Amino acid sequence: MDRTPSKSLAALWMTGWLALMLIIVVAGREAVRELNVFQLMEMRTVMGLFMLYPLIRGSGGFPLLKTARLHMHVLRNTIHYGAQFGWFFALTLIPIGQVVAIEFTMPIWTAIMAAMFLGERMTQWKVAAIVLGIVGVIIIVRPTTGEINPGQLIALGAAVGFGVSVAMVKSLTRTEQAVAIIFWMLVVQSVIGFFPALYVWKWPSAPAWGWVAVIAFCGTYSHYCMVRALRHADATVVIPMDFLRVPLTATVGWLIYAEKLDLFTVLGAALILSGNLLNLRAPNPAPARAGT
């Protein structure tokens, strides 16, 4: 696979990531109008397995998927499944701009988990990022008003879950290929969600099938776009591009659903993104390892 350094190619792949993630937000909002979240997630993972096959074949076939760390895949994807469930459920409760703004605390929780369990150093910049992120969430949620929306707390729980999941992925990348990580994600989550989905199952309408297929495709290949971007540029170049997802998602919510973001959400999102930028700062930056 091509690993030629190129910021232009990295930006092109990140454009694909951003477009697919924006589509997932809209498709997810539409799908949960008809389908239970358990059923939606089960259909998404099963479809995703079939859609992943071209990547498996192009990466060397099924022997690449062998793992000696199945327990880590199971634990990681149990947490990730819960976080995904919370994310989709939060879409039904609060504006999508708020969901994504709170989701961007994920790198902060990842930094905490990596420092606690992976031995990564907690720098002054990471501490500042954590403080800004927490303040940003408090501003968005505003607990002192007594009007906390449960959707905000669910979105925050999902962000923490995603952060733990990403820290575990960082550990898995030391021994596993990206395609293998995605494959085991789909397999484990298909098993976890089978009985809950069966319990709430109802036959989807044709439009619902379409929305789920869109979610499955975008969810599978958005990760591929991110990996390809990281092969062409350092993480410190690639990750800030993802910050565009906050204003872009808010714009989509405004254009399609007439959702308005209040000043508190805008200010909180600005603090969270500022914290993420600080988290990327290092006194002596080293090039990121290709393929991580």
Provide the descriptors you would attach to this structure in a database record.
single chain, 75% helix, 292 residues, mainly alpha
Query: What profile does the largest beta sheet have?
Result: none
Shape: globular
Give the rounded overall mean pLDDT: 84
Task: Kindly estimate the percentage of residues that lie in beta strands according to DSSP.
Answer: under 5%
* Gyration radius, rounded: 19 Å
If helices are DSSP runs of H or I spanning 4 or more residues, what is the number of helices? Answer: 12
Total beta strand runs = 0
Uncertain spans: 284-292
Please bin the fraction of helical residues: over 70%
Distance between the termini: 13 Å
What is the structural class?
mainly alpha
What sequence of helices (H) and strands (E) makes up the elements? HHHHHHHHHHHH
Integer count of domains: 1
